[in-house]
Write a structure and sequence with these properties.
mainly alpha
């Protein structure tokens, strides 16, 4: 008869895995992907290295779990910040939240955005970018529908914005301390790219004229 874990046992195992993921996130925030090892994570979590391997098959598997947890949290933050308002307000909030949070934890954001990683982790990175693009796509599509933005393919514009923001952040994230002008400049760029030419007039664009 196959052994079945009791709810209590499963809860304990889940808690242990969560502790390890939390520890791995801290190690990534300090040392990046290249500096993470299963032994370093074990030391951070206060468990044996073998315990880490019981929960995760290897470094890529563990970091993929970190990506899923961190990305879900970050995407939720961007989605909440940009959930309402005009197109300009929503896009501005999305850019400020995305870039601003990245710059608060530059080493981890560098891992999430650009640091060379294993293929399986890179797959999680692609999902990460797509999830952020969806938040921008919603704002752009609604802005076009309301004639707040000129006609455009919202999906393409959103993907382009996420790619551009990620590319710009590579420098500031890799070469801290970053310039305080990065986020405002990214906001201005995003709005110009979407066809908003007059950003000083309470979010009114040429499409409104």
């Amino acid at each position: 008869m196959a052994y079945r874990r009791t709810p209590a046992v499963q809860a304990r195992l889940d808690a242990q895995a969560g502790l390890i993921v939390q520890a791995a996130t801290k190690v990534l925030s300090r040392a990046g992907y290249a500096g993470l090892s299963m032994a370093a994570v074990a030391a951070e979590a206060g468990v044996a290295t073998g315990t880490v391997y019981k929960n995760f098959s290897g470094k890529a598997d563990l970091v993929s779990a970190v990506f899923r947890k961190v990305v879900a949290h970050e995407v939720a933050a961007v989605g909440t910040a940009s959930a309402s308002g005009t197109a300009v307000e929503r896009v501005t909030a999305a850019v400020e939240t995305f870039a601003g949070r990245a710059l608060k934890n530059p080493k981890l954001a560098y891992v999430l955005l650009v640091e060379p990683v294993d293929t399986v982790v890179d797959t999680e990175r692609l999902r990460f970018r797509r999830a952020f693009a969806e938040a921008f796509e919603s704002a752009v599509a609604e802005g076009v529908a309301r004639a707040e933005l000129p006609a455009q393919d919202a999906k393409i514009s959103a993907a382009a914005l996420v790619g551009a923001i990620g590319e710009v952040l590579v420098g500031p994230l890799a070469d801290a301390p970053h310039s305080e002008s990065v986020v405002p400049e990214l906001v201005n760029f995003a709005l110009r790219a979407l066809g908003v030419h007059d950003q000083s007039d309470s979010g009114v664009s040429d499409a409104d004229a």
